[in-house]
Amino acid sequence: MLQFSPLRTAIIIIVAVLGIFLAIPNFFSKETTANWPSFLPHDGMTLGLDLQGGSHLLLQVNRESIITERLKDLRRDARQVLAGDLGIGNIITTDADGITVELTDPTQKAAAATALQTLQTNISGTLGIGGTPELEFGETADGRLTVKLSANGVTERMSSLIAQSIEVIRKRVDEVGTTEPTIQRQGQDRVLVQVPGFEDSSRLKELISTTARLTFHLVHPTMSAAQAEAQGVPSGYFILPSAEGGFDELLNENVELGGESLTNAQPGFDQQTGRSVVSFSFDTRGAIIFGEITSRNVGKRFAIVLDDQVITAPTIQQPITGGSGQISGNFTAQTANDLAVLLRAGALPATLDVAEERSVGPSLGADSIRAGVTSGVVAAVLVVAFMVIAYGLFGLFANISLVLNILLIVASLSLLGSTLTLPGIAGIVLTIGMAVDANVLIYERIRE
User: Fold this and answer.
1) How many CB atoms lie within 10 A of CB 101?
2) Same domain, 201 and 295
3) How would you list the strands of the sheet with 276-282, edge to edge?
4) Phi, psi of 212 (to 5 degrees)
5) What residues are paired with 251 via a beta bridge?
C-alpha cells in the first residue's frame, strides 16, 4: 500500500480546504455574500459578456477632428512665433490641411520662414526609432508662406493617439465600477470596448466617446459675439456657443489653462442655489497659473470651455489663489457625476466615433449559463456513475479527486478575478473528461 508523509498529507488537506473556502461565493448570490462576515470571501468569478450580457462598442478615431484641432494649435503657435516673439505682422488663414501666412512686410519673409521652421515636430514611429516629420513648408506663387500637415504625420499621430485613448477609456470604465472590461486596439484607428454587466449602453457610449477637453479662455472685454459676427472676428479670437443656449461667446484663442492640470473633480451642490455643480482642484503648477490669471484679470469674464462649448463664463470678482473652483451649469446629479468622472480620467486626445454598437441581453447570458450548467451536470453524473460501476472504491476516490479538481479551478478563477465565458465552461467540462481519462489509464494499468 502506498505511504504518504504527514507533511504531504497536510498540504493536500490544506489546499483542498482552502479551495473549497474560496469557491463558496460562486454558489450564492451577490446580495447574500454582501452580508457575510468580513473574514469570509465575497468575490466569485466574473461572468463574461456572453454570459451576463453587457455593452459592445467599436470606436474609431475621427481623422478630420485630429486635423482640425492640430490646425488650431498650429495657427496659434504660428501667430505667437511671428507676432508675439518677432513682431512680424501677419494674416493667417486656415486651409483644409494647413495654414497660409501673408506678411504685412514682405521684406521679413526670410525671418518669418526661419521662425516657422521651429514649429516642426517629429512624431516617433511604432518602435520609438526615428520619427516622421509632421509639417511641410512651402510658398505660394504670390509669395505667401504655407505650412501643411503631411499625410504620414497625421497617420502617425493617429497611431500614437490610439494608445493614449485606450488608457483614458480604461480609467473612465474603472471609475464606473465595472469589472474585467475588454479594451483593446483593433487595426490602426479603432478601439474595441466590451463591458460585461453594464446594461445602460447609451450612458456607456456617452461616457467613453465624450472627449472631455477642458480649457479656460478669457472673454473679449468689449465686443460681443454678435458684434464680431457683424463687424468681423478680431484677430486672435473665435466664437463658441454657450451650453446654456441663446447666445455665443467671443473668446481669446490662447488657452490660459488646460484640464491636464486638474488633480481632482467631484460632483456636489451649490450651497446658495442648491444646483448640481462639479468642484475641481489643480496641481501646484495649475494653482499658481490660475492664481496669476485671476489676479491680472479682475473684473473680466473667464470662460470654462468643455468640448468646444462654453459651460460658464463668470466675471472674476477677486484673485482665486486656492487652486480650486467649481463648474456650474444645467447639470443633474447624474450628469454632474459623469462630468466629474470624465475630468478625473482625463480628456481623450482625439474624438472617437462609434463605428459599431451592440448590446447583449441578459436573457442570452441566462440561456448560455443554463445550457452550460446542464451539460456540465450531465457530464459529471455520467462520469461519476461510470467510475463507481467500473472501478468500485477506486472509482469513488477518483470522483472525490475530480470534484476537488473542479473546485480548485473555480477557486483559482475567483482568487485571480478572472472572467468566466462560455468557452471557459466548455473547458471545465473538457477538464472533467480529461481527468477521468487519466484515472482510467491508471486503473487499467493497475489491473494489468
Assistant:
1) 23
2) no
3) 262-269, 276-282, 324-328
4) 60, 45
5) 219, 238
Q: How confident is the model at residue 65 (pLDDT cuts 50, 70, 90)?
A: confident
353 assigned to some structural domain: no
Q: Which of 161, 182, 209 is at the close of a domain? A: 209
Q: Residue 366 — very low, low, confident or very high, per pLDDT cuts 50/70/90?
A: low
In which element (H, E) is residue 219 found?
A: none
pTM above 0.90, yes or no: no
Q: Do residues 278 and 268 lie in contact, with contact meaning Cβ atoms separated by under 8 Å?
A: yes
**Structure confidence at residue 379 (pLDDT):** 76
Q: Nearest CA to 320 among 291, 285, 293?
A: 291
pLDDT > 80? residue 23: yes
Pairing of strands 46-47, 419-420: parallel
CATH assignment at residue 316: 3.30.1360.200
What rounded mean pLDDT belongs to the chain?
Answer: 81
Range of the domain at 426: 6-47+362-447
pLDDT for residue 236: 81
Q: How far apart are CA 391 and CA 443, in angstroms?
A: 8
Q: Same domain, yes or no, for 34 and 115?
A: no
**Helices assigned H by DSSP within 36-133:** 49-52, 63-79, 109-117
Do 155 and 65 share a domain, yes or no? yes
The answer to whether 248 and 241 are in contact (CB under 8 A) is yes
- Around Cβ 14, how many Cβ atoms within 10 Å? 10
In residues, how long is the chain? 448
Residues 66 and 148 in one domain: yes
The model's pLDDT over 276-299, given as tens digits with 9 standing for 90+, comes to: 888 888 888 888 888 899 999 999
- Joined grid coordinates for residue 357: 454598437
